[in-house]
Design goal:
CATH superfamily of the largest domain: ATPase, nucleotide binding domain
Structural class: alpha/beta
CATH topology of the largest domain: Nucleotidyltransferase, domain 5
Helix content: 40-55%
Radius of gyration: 23 Å
Distance between the termini: 21 Å
Number of domains: 3
Largest sheet: 5 strands, mixed
Strand order of the largest sheet: 5-4-3-6-9
Strand content: 15-25%
């Protein structure tokens, strides 16, 4: 490392465990002892690092060990869904300190939903001062132009289309605000929390009210040029029956195989179903017509995923969301079609698995997203 290693770069060394004493920092960076003391002093002053003297001694005074201070601040996170939202306060290691889950109709729009989120964060902060907040991370069920935090082509949030969210949050919490697609944050949370040591290439597919995907390639989320990567819900399928999708096209997999589509088809067949739980009850009861519709939805999703597997060659496809978690026959159909229609090389080591983290992946992914930003070397240096 350069002899001019910055304070932010020193923090990265401490967080990774590569350098845990002043002597380690000097050895790794080549910085002089006074320069090391200056940088460590800045980190101590900002509460990002603490000193420990409980390290084992080999004789004489035990070395002072430097440790990243996860309690040195908090981040505010929210994972918005079509019907359910999770809000939390996390420490600087991404651990949830306080959280709340509730049902909210996001179609009420940002003028209603954002104040509710901010009021909830205020309550969850408790006695912690607002100055402890280092950043905000949000996942929303819409395509997001990440650099600006602008929602576009909202899947279930039509009233949010074109809204730039960060300035609205910064009116109350004047900190960096990052907003991304809900499935992207699920993919990040799932990868970082459950698969980081296993693979850098993961495709997370959320099958719920709507269908979407998040792509982790070489360990990083792939957003595309304008944030539209992973919108597999709008890939058309064969023999869809001419169903008009909310995007304006015909027979998108989202419009014929999502939870919304299943409910629509079952109601048309005379089934008394109001929620996915009602569909689950029919599946458990062995209702043949419901089972057939669920398997057909899986076949259609598998058809689209086979193309994605051929293009992206992930190590693992993770299936999450209410529908994927509820229906074994749907998952079985997806697996069958993907392995049959993808290339032999792409599926040689491919695993198709249910989510390991479940709904918790959303909060985890939002926390990772904002922490990777506010604790980056550049952000730390800019804040000094």
């Amino acid at each position: 490392m350069s002899r001019h290693a910055t304070t932010g770069e020193v923090l990265a060394l401490i967080r990774s465990g590569e350098a845990v004493t002043r002597a380690d920092i000097g050895r790794v960076t080549g910085l002089s002892r006074p320069a090391v003391s200056l940088r460590v002093g800045e980190l101590l002053e900002r509460g990002l690092v603490v000193e420990r003297t409980d390290a084992p001694s080999t004789g004489g005074r035990p070395p002072v060990r430097l440790e990243f201070n996860a309690a040195g601040g908090v981040v505010l996170v929210a994972a918005l869904g079509a019907s359910r939202t999770r809000v939390a306060v996390c420490d600087l290691a991404g651990n949830e300190l306080a959280g709340r889950r509730f049902h909210i109709d996001v179609e009420q729009g940002p003028d209603v939903v954002l104040p509710l989120l901010m009021d909830t964060w205020e309550e969850l902060l408790g006695d912690r001062p607002r100055s402890a907040v280092r950043g905000v991370g949000m996942g929303v069920p819409a395509t997001v132009e990440f650099a600006e935090g602008r929602t576009e082509s909202a899947r279930v949030m039509a009233s949010w289309t074109g809204v730039v969210i960060p300035p609205l949050i910064r009116q109350r919490f004047d900190v960096p605000v990052l907003v991304d697609n809900d499935v992207n944050v699920l993919a990040v949370g799932e990868h970082r929390g459950a698969y980081r040591e296993e693979t850098g290439d993961l495709l997370f597919v959320k099958i719920s009210t709507r269908i979407g995907a998040g792509i982790v390639a070489a360990g990083s989320i792939l957003r595309g040029a304008l944030g539209a990567a992973g919108e597999i819900g709008h890939i058309p399928v064969r023999d869809g029956g001419g169903v008009l999708c909310r995007c304006g096209n015909i027979d998108c997999v989202d419009s014929v195989a999502s939870g919304t589509a299943l409910l629509r088809e079952l109601r048309a067949a005379g089934k008394d179903v109001k929620t996915i739980d009602d569909v689950t009850a029919l599946v458990r009861a062995g209702d043949a017509e419901t089972m057939a519709m669920v398997r057909e939805a899986g076949r259609r999703i598998g058809e689209v995923l086979a193309g994605a597997v051929n293009i992206l060659n992930p190590s693992v496809v993770v299936l999450g969301g209410d529908v994927a978690e509820a229906f074994g026959p749907l998952v079985s159909s997806i697996r069958e079609v993907v392995y049959r229609r993808s290339t032999a090389l792409a599926t040689r080591r491919l695993r198709i698995e249910p989510s390991r983290l479940g709904a918790a992946a959303g909060i985890s992914g939002c926390a990772v997203m904002v922490l990777d930003h506010v604790l980056s070397a550049r952000a730390v240096d800019d804040s000094l």
